[in-house]
Amino acid sequence: MTADRAEVGRRLAYFRSIARPRMTQRQLADRAGVALGTVRKIERGERAASGRMLEALADALGIDVPRLLGDVTSSCVVRDALPAISDALAVYDIPADGPVRPLSRLADDVRRCTAWRLAAQYKRITHTAPDLLPELARALHRADGADAERVAALLVSAYRSADAVAYKYGARDLSARLVELMRWVAARCDDPLVAATVAYVRTEVFFAARAHGAGLAALHTAIDLVPAPNVPAVTAVRGALHMRAAVVAARASDATAAGGHLAEAERLARRTPEGLYGGTAFGPDSVRVHQVAVAVALGGDHVGRALAVARAWNPPVDMPAERRSGFYIELARAQLWAGKPDDAFASLAAARRIAPLHTREHPWVRHDAATLRRLKRGAAPAVTAFAEWCHAAS
């Protein structure tokens, strides 16, 4: 595919500037294995980058090529790969014979998949999951004792990464199947934190079915089973469940329950530094993101709270891309409802810059982009282009 050289250059410079630790042009060139002058010319828009060079630069930055291109034609590639993930689940309990690598190498692959999930790099997950899932199933079938529990925890994480792709791309049946397999494997892993993680993810099933009452009840049960929050990992898992419960209660229009769960999440976050715990981000910043999500879910007079949070705070650049883009998607909805269409479009554009695959596939983005297109009535070419990019209804 082709892309405007100047746009690619701007995006390359942007992602280099927000890399952690921040990269100089020379460091990027060294890591990507290209000449420093080449990086400089690409960033200035003076040179087009070949497909292979884009892959090298994207890998050096830890992002997908579509993020440099500002386009996500790879969405079709991801969707086309979903049947391979489904096929990989067929022998979950009676895995076929085959090789199994050392546990340390399997763990490395699972960690990479988790990082890709958090960064909304779904294409990379679809490349790895069809082979990784059966291999982990074989490893679980052969393991015993402590190794079996460790493999079970790895398989739960791998299923979660595959589920993120299925759920984001609307494959609800595949997503529900993956969630049930997570529950099946978690039962073989005597770790309440793994079970809590599965309960957190299972909420997707209730969201899809709009069964918010049942979802809230399931989360209450999960919270009761989490040990007392005496170390950061346990505190974070418990806090994440309260964040999730706050959103479910808000979607059920129960402002009192939503406020109670959000307050408990805030209390636990004060004791927990922002970070990743069991594959889920939790801490003060994550709670602020959920404050916006709860306000938007409640709607009406609550929308002002979402705007107030955004006036005083922006998600940090080191927050997982999926969550950070989600913040701007939620904020755009609040801004649109508040009669601020220009601000709403700016938020949608920010979400796209952060995580294009996540943004393009989000149903709210398509709905809100279509609304903005109608409001602008063709007077804003950028809005029209965005609506066409995410396949918003005319």
Secondary structure layout:
Blueprint: H1 5-18, H2 25-32, H3 36-43, H4 51-61, H5 65-69, H6 74-88, H7 103-118, H8 122-142, H9 145-168, H10 172-186, H11 192-209, H12 212-225, H13 232-251, H14 255-269, E1 275-277, E2 280-282, H15 284-298, H16 303-312, H17 321-337, H18 341-354, H19 356-361, H20 363-376, H21 381-389
Antiparallel strand pairs: 1-2
Distance between the termini: 25 Å
> Number of helix segments?
21
Helix content: over 70%
Mean pLDDT: 92
Number of DSSP E strands:
2
Could you characterize what this model shows?
With 394 residues, the chain is mainly α. The protein has four domains: 71 residues, lambda repressor-like DNA-binding domains (434 Repressor (Amino-terminal Domain), Orthogonal Bundle); 117 residues, no CATH class; 105 residues; 67 residues, no CATH class. Helices cover 73% and strands 2% of the residues. The protein contains 21 helices and two strands. The protein has a two-stranded antiparallel ribbon. Helix 7 packs antiparallel against helix 8 and helix 7 packs parallel to helix 9. The longest helix has 24 residues. The mean pLDDT is 92.
Outline:
The chain is an all-alpha fold.
Based on the model shown, name its key terms:
single chain, 394 residues, mainly alpha, 434 Repressor (Amino-terminal Domain), 4 domains, 73% helix
